[in-house]
Amino acid sequence: MALSSTAQADTGDIVVTVENLRNLNQGELQIALFEKMDRVEMDFTKALRVQSVRVTSAKLSVTFSALPYGDYAIGVLHDLNKDKKMETNWIGMPKEDLAVSNNAKGGPMGGPKWDKAKFTLNTKKLILAPIVISHM
Fold first, then answer.
1. Rounded CA gap, 78 and 99, in Å?
2. What is d(CA 56, CA 47) in angstroms, rounded to the nearest whole number?
3. pLDDT interval class at 93 (50, 70, 90)
4. 73 alpha-carbon distance from chain centroid
5. What residues contact 1, with CB distance under 8 A and at least 6 apart?
6. Cβ count near 101 (within 10 Å)
7. pLDDT the model gives residue 8
8. Are strands 98-100 and 70-79 parallel, antiparallel or unpaired?
9. Which of 109, 126, 43 lies closest to 77 in space, CA to CA?
C-alpha cells in the first residue's frame, strides 16, 4: 500500500491554455506532450501523449492528467487538414499555425531547443503560462 500511495503522490496534472487561434471550426488542434529531446519538433510519433481538440474559439485549454513529476515540453499545431502532421512548403517552413511551451521559438534548423521549451512538473497541478499560436 505504501508504494502505491507514494507513486500517486509523485504525479500531477498539467493545464495547457492555447491562445491566438484563428480559422475557427477548421481542422483540429494537436497538443503534444514531450519528454526530453534535442529539439521540440511537431513529430507526434515522438510524443508521450497527444490530445486532439476541435478549434471552436480563439482560446482553448486541455489537461494532461496523472503524469509523473519531471521535465516536459508542449508542442501545439493547428492541423487544418487533420492529417496529424505539420505541413511545410518546399523549403521546410511550416504552413500551419504552431507554438511551443514557454513560447519558445525555433531556428532555421528546426524547432526550439529543449532547454528553451521545457518546464518542470513538481506539484499536483501545474498551470502553464498561455501558449500563443504563431500564424504561418
1. 9
2. 24
3. confident
4. 6
5. none
6. 23
7. 53
8. antiparallel
9. 43
Give the integer Cα–Cα distance in Å for 86 and 10. 34
Cα–Cα distance measured from residue 7 to residue 59, given in angstroms and rounded to the nearest whole number: 33
Residue 41: alpha-carbon gap to chain centroid: 10
Grid cell of 80 as nine digits = 487544418
Question: Residue 21: which residues within 8 A CB-CB, separation 6 or more?
Answer: 29, 55, 57, 58, 59, 60, 78, 97, 133
Contact of 128 with 74, CB cutoff 8 Å: yes
Number of C-beta neighbours around residue 59 at 10 A: 11
- Environment class of residue 136 by beta-carbon count within 10 Å: exposed (0-12), middle (13-18) or buried (19+)? middle
Mean pLDDT of the chain: 91
Which grid cell is 42?
511537431
pTM score:
0.90
**8 A C-beta contact, residue 97 and residue 136:** yes
Is 94 or 23 the better-scoring residue by pLDDT?
A: 23
pLDDT higher than 50, residue 4: no
